[in-house]
């Protein structure tokens, strides 16, 4: 499973003259060794790229460590990916550009700008762009990806990625006039990406341990939720009635008039009148006779 990744890492990390000699040892590379090699090769540069996207050094380190946590949890998928660095880069960019970080006090505002005027001007122009445009111009002009690859990594169509790139170049050219030409921007941004300063990162073994611990935690949480749902379902089945029992609603007073479900009950006077009518049946109207008394 790790042979493909080992081959790619050897091509990236080992000089061409030593590649043939190292190829004999790549099959013995364990998953841990392959992950550590990928981490040592890609993590420092990705931290710098995330900083160019966000202007926040703490968030950039957090984004890269989070991306490698995901990579170790999904190592069977990453190990056979044709571009493992691109897989981790996409995860780091997604985390770094998440809008939820605005709610966190530590990452609400960018860090102080660089001391060099050229770096400060270019970083300021990048941060003026919307996140999708910022990511597009960094991938295309900074890392040298072609337009279809840039569109695929940003999950956009090729025309949409081209429009974002043109808009980003226009905005950067407005803020930094000497970078108005695409070739000048490509050279300056590529040099800025390549000149990545050293970053303090966690050890790869610590990242792997944290990823395994988080994976076990989510597994236990999933088992707990499943067990709770099963228990609730069993309790409902055990306590639910087996037949429908109609409930007679009690009478309610509506505007002072009691609601009755059937015929009204007879009062004592009503009963006397009813008995009188039964004893003396009446077949028509009575004749009016003057009273002489």
Account of the protein in words:
There is one protein chain. The chain is mostly helical. The protein has helices spanning 3-13, 16-23, 31-54, 57-73, 75-79, 84-96, 117-127, 131-142, 147-153, 158-175, 182-194, 204-239, 268-279; strands spanning 253-254, 257-258. A two-stranded antiparallel sheet has the order 1-2. The termini are far apart. 27% of the residues are buried. Residues 1-6 and 10-26 have low confidence and may be disordered.
Structure keywords:
293 residues; mainly alpha; disordered N terminus; 64% helix
Helix proportion of residues, in percent? Answer: 55-70%
Number of helices: 13
Calculate Rg over CA atoms.
Answer: 39 Å
Measured between the Cα atoms of the first and last residue, the distance is 126 Å
Spatial order of strands in the largest sheet: 1-2
- Summed over residues and divided by their number, the pLDDT gives a mean of 80
What is the N-to-C succession of helices and strands? HHHHHHHHHHHHEEH
Strand content: under 5%
The rough form would be described as: elongated
Structural class comes to mainly alpha
- Major pleated sheet: 2 strands, antiparallel
The unreliable regions are 1-6, 10-26
Number of strands: 2
């Amino acid at each position: 499973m790790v042979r493909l990744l080992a081959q790619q890492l050897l091509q990236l990390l080992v000089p061409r003259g030593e590649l043939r000699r190292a190829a004999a040892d790549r099959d013995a590379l364990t998953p841990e060794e392959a992950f550590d090699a990928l981490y040592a090769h890609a993590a420092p540069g990705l931290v710098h790229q995330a900083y160019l996207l966000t202007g926040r050094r703490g968030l950039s380190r957090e984004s890269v460590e989070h991306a490698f946590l995901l990579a170790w949890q999904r190592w069977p998928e990453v190990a056979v990916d044709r571009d493992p660095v691109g897989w981790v880069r996409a995860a780091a960019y997604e985390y770094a550009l998440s809008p939820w970080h605005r709610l966190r006090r530590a990452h609400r505002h960018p860090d102080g700008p660089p001391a060099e005027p050229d770096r400060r001007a270019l970083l300021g122009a990048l941060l003026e762009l919307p996140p999708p445009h910022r990511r597009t111009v960094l991938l295309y002009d900074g890392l040298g990806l072609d337009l279809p690859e840039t569109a695929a990594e940003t999950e956009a169509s090729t025309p949409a990625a081209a429009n974002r790139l043109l808009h980003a170049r226009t905005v950067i050219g407005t803020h930094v006039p000497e970078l108005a030409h695409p070739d000048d921007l490509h050279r300056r941004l590529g040099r800025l990406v390549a000149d990545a300063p050293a970053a303090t990162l966690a050890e790869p073994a610590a990242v792997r341990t944290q990823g395994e611990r988080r994976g076990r935690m989510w597994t236990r949480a999933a088992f707990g939720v499943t067990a709770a749902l099963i228990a609730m379902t069993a309790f409902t089945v055990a306590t639910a009635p087996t037949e429908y029992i109609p409930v007679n609603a009690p009478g309610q007073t509506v505007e002072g008039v009691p609601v009755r479900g059937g015929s009204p009950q007879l009062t004592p006077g009503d009963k006397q009148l009813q008995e009188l009518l039964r004893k003396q049946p009446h077949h028509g109207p009575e004749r009016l006779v003057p009273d002489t008394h």
